[in-house]
From TrEMBL:
<dbReference type="GO" id="GO:0016020">
    <property type="term" value="C:membrane"/>
</dbReference>
<feature type="transmembrane region" description="Helical">
    <location>
        <begin position="60"/>
        <end position="81"/>
    </location>
</feature>
<feature type="transmembrane region" description="Helical">
    <location>
        <begin position="88"/>
        <end position="106"/>
    </location>
</feature>
<keyword id="KW-1133">Transmembrane helix</keyword>
<keyword id="KW-0812">Transmembrane</keyword>
<feature type="transmembrane region" description="Helical">
    <location>
        <begin position="112"/>
        <end position="132"/>
    </location>
</feature>
<dbReference type="InterPro" id="IPR032808">
    <property type="entry name" value="DoxX"/>
</dbReference>
<feature type="transmembrane region" description="Helical">
    <location>
        <begin position="27"/>
        <end position="48"/>
    </location>
</feature>
<protein>
    <submittedName>
        <fullName>DoxX family protein</fullName>
    </submittedName>
</protein>
<dbReference type="Pfam" id="PF13564">
    <property type="entry name" value="DoxX_2"/>
</dbReference>
<keyword id="KW-0472">Membrane</keyword>
Length: 146
């Protein structure tokens, strides 16, 4: 009886790429799932232009009319993230979207740690989930050996 290795390593220079273990994939799917649920909720409330969105937009100095566009763009990028063949493209586009959120909050002088950097925290969860579940992302962003 032979046993299968938990993961395979590929070494290139001083970088190591590993195939995700079953546990890493599960954690990756959980993180990605949490990210998707949050972004789906946020995109939908923007499309519906609920009062909370109107209030937040006013506080940020944005017109209400941008809520629909922002929600549609967000959901399109999210759909690309959810589809395995386009997940990396979706993550890149969502990183840009989240970067815009950081800049908008900075411009409106929102609290740094709780509000402005929330989009950064969200992006970290998004990329961590994708990294843990996708071998191709590990190839693009290898972990370097000390």
């Amino acid at each position: 009886m032979t046993t299968q290795p938990v993961h395979n390593e590929t070494v290139s220079g001083n970088a190591t790429t590993t195939t995700p273990s079953a546990t890493a994939r599960k954690v990756g799917y959980v993180l990605s799932g949490l990210f998707v649920v949050f972004m789906l909720f946020d995109g939908i409330i923007h499309i519906l232009n609920l009062q909370t969105v109107k209030d937040a937009s006013a506080e940020l100095g944005l017109p209400d009319s941008l809520a629909l566009t922002a929600g549609v763009v967000q959901l399109i990028c999210l759909a690309l993230y959810v589809i395995p063949r386009t997940s990396i493209l979706g993550a890149i586009l969502l990183t840009g979207y989240l970067g815009g959120a950081v800049l908008t909050n900075l411009r409106a002088e929102q609290p740094l740690l709780s509000t402005t950097l929330f989009a950064v925290y969200t992006g970290i969860v998004m990329w961590a989930g994708l990294y843990l579940r996708d071998e191709k992302v590990r190839e693009i962003i290898p972990v370097r050996r000390a």
